[in-house]
Write a structure and sequence with these properties.
Layout lengths: L13 H10 L4 H8 L4 E2 L5 E2 L1 H7 L9 H10 L13 H4 L3
Antiparallel strand pairs: 1-2
């Protein structure tokens, strides 16, 4: 039977989310892609994520939900308590 692990994290402020993204060495577009947020064509060409921009904005009231922030920290190796490790093939395909 699987063990359920609670990944309690506070919802990040825009500043905290930006700091975590920058610490991971990711652009907004790369971070949005990693987390499955939509991308759009930018006004000056290229690609952007308006959703991610809003989450990092100091003037926007939206915050990234706590579980999604916990997953972002896990995926970027920044979670303060846990880290992701790959299961061995024997664990994923028991005989």
């Amino acid at each position: 039977m699987s063990t359920i692990i609670r990944l309690d994290m506070p919802a990040p402020s825009g500043e905290n989310l930006k700091a975590a993204r920058m610490a991971a060495g990711l652009s907004q577009v790369q971070a949005a892609e990693l987390m499955g947020y939509p991308l759009q064509a930018g006004s000056r060409g290229g690609v952007q994520s308006r959703t991610w921009q809003a989450l990092e904005s100091a003037t926007d009231d939206r915050n990234m939900p706590e579980p999604i922030f916990a997953m972002f920290l896990l995926l970027t190796g920044q979670h303060p308590e846990f880290r992701l490790i790959e299961k061995r093939s024997s664990e994923t395909n028991p005989a």
